[in-house]
Amino acid sequence: RPKRFDTKFYLIAAPETQSASHDNGESVDSAWTTPTKALGDSDAGIWTLVFVTRANLIRLAERGATVEAAFKDAANTEIHTLTPIIERGDGGMTFSIPENMGYSLTKFTQEKPPI
């Protein structure tokens, strides 16, 4: 049965002393990391990132080297509702979004199911 998700991404500045935690339901693991490290860890097979999370982490890595830069980019970004197109093939699932939405990652093939 197909799954559909309505995902929103929020950007906040957490205090230096903030502890990461999860609820063991929707989120079963948590850690503080950087966008670049999270992407590298995913590429190394440490964890799986779904397409929309990957696209947003790449955007943060490219435009938000600091918290201030990330906030500035977010403030200057128009919000769009996106529904990725999903194509299933022998190589896995390919997700794509229009190229004019402000993301450098607009197409990604995932070999194993993301969920």
Task: Offer a concise description of the structure.
The protein is α+β, with helices and mostly antiparallel strands and 115 residues long. It has three helices and three strands, in the order H-H-H-E-E-E. The protein starts with 34 loop residues before the first helix and ends in a 5-residue tail after the last strand.
Descriptive report:
- This protein has 115 residues and is an alpha+beta fold.
- The chain has three helices and three strands.
- It has helices at residues 35-43, 51-63, 67-75, and strands spanning 85-89, 92-96, 107-110.
- The chain has a three-stranded antiparallel β-sheet, with no helix packed on it.
- Strand 1 and strand 2 (92-96) form a beta hairpin.
- The protein starts with 34 loop residues before the first helix and ends in a 5-residue tail after the last strand.
- The model has no long low-confidence stretch (mean pLDDT 85).
Which strand order does the major sheet show? 1-2-3
Cα radius of gyration in angstroms? 15 Å
Order of helix and strand elements from N to C terminus: HHHEEE
The largest pleated sheet is described as: 3 strands, antiparallel
Low-confidence stretches: none
Q: Count of DSSP E strands? A: 3
Q: Any idea what the shape is?
A: globular
Percent in strands: 5-15%
In helices, the fraction of residues equals: 25-40%
Count the helices. How many?
3
Supply the helix-strand structural class.
alpha+beta
**Average pLDDT value?**
85
Distance between the termini: 12 Å
